[in-house]
From TrEMBL:
The lineage of its organism: unclassified sequences, metagenomes, ecological metagenomes. Pfam families: Allantoicase. This is Allantoicase domain-containing protein. GO terms for molecular function: allantoicase activity. Gene3D superfamilies: Galactose-binding domain-like.
Length: 240
């Protein structure tokens, strides 16, 4: 058997019927026809870096697929720019985890999801530290934004939530993740070290934030370790 995959980027509001019949979209190759091996992972590189909203899969001549995964970065929605009340650190709006020093039980990217946390495994959790220091992670926004409110959710984390946390920020055009990580120790504090409680939604209002300047990246430090279910930063994108 073999497979090919097409992609398209449908404008907002286009119905599925018009995507299927091709009347409102232009399909382009992501994967030319390639042979598949049975009972195995078949990994291919995309032929295009264009944004996509839909994939069209063709099997030759027939057969079965257990899973399809398409890896990449979420593109932000232009309609979210200059709209107050946007979760600017959501995966849905293009935010991505850049680095975490520890992801023993759950990855940092989990806390950027929009849906309600499902369990501890659906959050970011680090191992118990036996040495001095604390755990931390860096998230990149899809573009510069200002923040009016921060939400830290420790749902499901009861004996393993961080005692305290802090957030620092920067606003840079740098795209080299290694440089971003190296510079993060000198970023500007947005939230000075605050106490957290177990299994609770913590809300920090605008007046509790230390500045209201545009940000492009955030560093969250948890002390000394533990788990967070969700992180939300409510504000608006600016100066796209």
């Amino acid at each position: 058997p073999a497979i090919s995959i097409l992609g398209c980027c449908a404008p907002s509001g286009i119905t599925d019927d018009r995507v299927v019949d091709g009347s409102a979209v232009e399909w382009f190759d992501l994967l030319a026809r390639e042979a598949l091996q049975g009972d195995s992972n078949n990994i291919f590189v995309s032929a295009s870096q264009q944004p996509v909203t839909h994939l069209k899969i063709t099997l030759y001549p027939d057969g079965g697929i257990a899973r399809l995964r398409a890896y990449g970065n979420v593109c932000s929605d232009d309609n979210s720019y200059e709209v107050k009340g946007t979760n600017v650190i959501s995966q849905q709006n293009g935010a991505r985890a850049v680095f975490a020093n520890d992801e023993h039980f759950g990855c940092l990217n989990n806390i950027l999801a929009e849906h309600e946390p499902l369990s501890m495994a659906d959050g970011w959790e680090t191992r118990r530290r036996r040495e001095p220091g604390n755990d931390w992670g860096i998230v990149a926004l899809s573009g510069p934004a200002t923040v009016d409110e921060i939400v830290v959710d420790t749902k499901f984390f009861k004996g393993n939530y961080p005692d305290t946390f802090s957030i620092s920020t920067t606003c840079i055009d740098e795209t080299d993740d290694d440089l971003i990580i190296a510079q993060s120790n000198s970023w500007t504090e947005l939230v000075r070290r605050k106490k957290l409680e177990m299994n609770q939604v913590h809300v920090f209002k605008k007046e509790e934030l230390l500045h209201h300047n545009p940000i492009s990246h955030i560093r969250i430090d948890i002390f000394p370790d533990g788990g967070i279910a969700r992180l939300k930063m409510i504000g608006e994108f600016v100066d796209k």
